[in-house]
Design a protein that fits this description.
Layout: H1 11-18, E1 26-27, H2 45-48, H3 53-67, E2 72-76, H4 79-85, E3 94-98, H5 104-111, E4 115-119, E5 130-134, H6 146-153, E6 158-162, E7 182-187, E8 200-204, H7 208-216, H8 223-233, H9 236-259, E9 263-267, E10 271-275, H10 279-287, E11 291-292, E12 294-296, E13 299-306, H11 313-323
Parallel strand pairs: 1-11, 3-4, 3-5, 5-6, 6-7
Antiparallel strand pairs: 2-8, 7-8, 9-10, 10-13, 12-13
Helix pairs in contact: 3-8, 4-5
Length: 325
């Protein structure tokens, strides 16, 4: 039986139980930046014409610059699209996945007939036909150095490094020097706060890059996604300011959680994971303030919160103060 494919962002479930409308809730159940990139107006052709070769190349160039890579950068409909394609890059075999982590990796390999081995340490991955490391990891924020991952790549058939939360910490990325058997996944929607745009990138070299392009087919990302991505990925001022704000917000949220009696498990600049006496009780208490969080089926103590928007802090402070009473 397949493991549950639970996800954050399931605000409909919270509304069904506690009421209210979507606008009444603060959704912190995902690691999506709640201060999104200001898209502004897009040229009409982004909406009305099929994406041109120039449109695609523009976003590729912007992605290569932002991710500091010379590898192929293939735009797709979110990092999730690359996760769906990854099991097709090699003959079916044994896939080892560093866990606990984002459950779509195991689900995708399993759906394509792979044998799944979930392991707890980087040293358990060598010898796999395919190995998956999320760096930094979701939900515990575990980090692995680029050198350690390059060493690991030499011991497996295909190494998938999911860097969906790496934007705030470029030094953690392996993108600058990707071995030939490594596929790097990058999410656009999380750091830029535009998950609905559905844009992500697969970074790799041929033959894997060529295989992904063939599997994805033409127009793998929409015209508006390409236009928004090109603009945002080149906006170094916004990127720098956002990193600074997120770092400050992490410290603020950690302090509030500590005051509430929670212990920091880990996290990234886009989410924080805490240990509580009861994650379910903590989630319910927050939901009564119309704040939605993420808990996990494999740990009854862990609760994860995204970073609030500036206007949301007062309600967050009130709700967390109630946790310590």
């Amino acid at each position: 039986m397949s493991a549950p494919r639970d996800h954050g962002g399931n605000l409909d479930a919270a509304i069904a139980r506690w009421g209210g409308a979507r606008r009444d809730w603060i959704d912190l159940s995902t690691g999506i930046n709640r201060v999104p990139y200001p898209v502004g107006n897009l040229d009409t052709h982004a909406w009305t014409a099929l994406p041109s070769a120039t449109d695609v190349q523009n976003v590729i160039n912007a992605a290569r610059g932002a991710y500091r890579t010379t590898a192929e950068a293939i735009p797709l409909s979110g990092a999730q699209a690359a996760i769906q394609l990854a099991p097709l890059l090699r003959p079916v075999g044994v896939a080892r996945i560093l866990t606990p982590t984002y459950n779509e990796h195991a689900a995708s390999f399993r759906n394509h007939g792979w044998e799944i081995e979930e392991v707890e340490g980087l040293g358990d991955l060598p010898g796999a036909d395919a190995a998956v490391v999320v760096n930094p990891n979701n939900p515990d924020g575990a980090q692995y150095t680029p050198d350690a991952l390059r060493d690991l790549a030499a011991t497996v058939g295909l190494l998938i490094v999911d860097e969906s939360f790496a934007d705030p910490n470029p030094a953690l990325s392996i993108a600058a020097d990707i071995p030939e058997n490594v596929l790097v996944l990058r999410s656009f929607g999380k750091f830029y706060g535009l998950a609905g745009v559905r844009l992500g990138f697969a970074l790799s070299h041929d033959p894997f890059a060529a295989r992904i392009r063939a599997l994805a087919g033409p127009w793998a990302a929409s015209g508006p996604a390409l236009a928004v991505g090109t603009k945002a990925l080149r906006d170094t001022h916004w990127i720098s300011a956002t990193k600074e704000r997120l770092a400050e917000d992490c410290e603020r949220l950690d302090h509030l959680a500590m005051t509430a009696g929670w212990q920091l498990v880990g996290g990234t600049a886009l989410f924080r994971t805490y240990r509580t006496p009861s994650a379910q009780a903590a989630q319910i208490a927050l939901a009564e303030h119309r704040i939605w969080s993420r808990i996990f089926p494999y740990d009854q103590h862990w609760i994860r919160l995204g970073l609030p928007a500036p206007e949301d802090w007062a309600r967050i402070e009130t709700a967390l103060a109630g946790q310590s009473e």
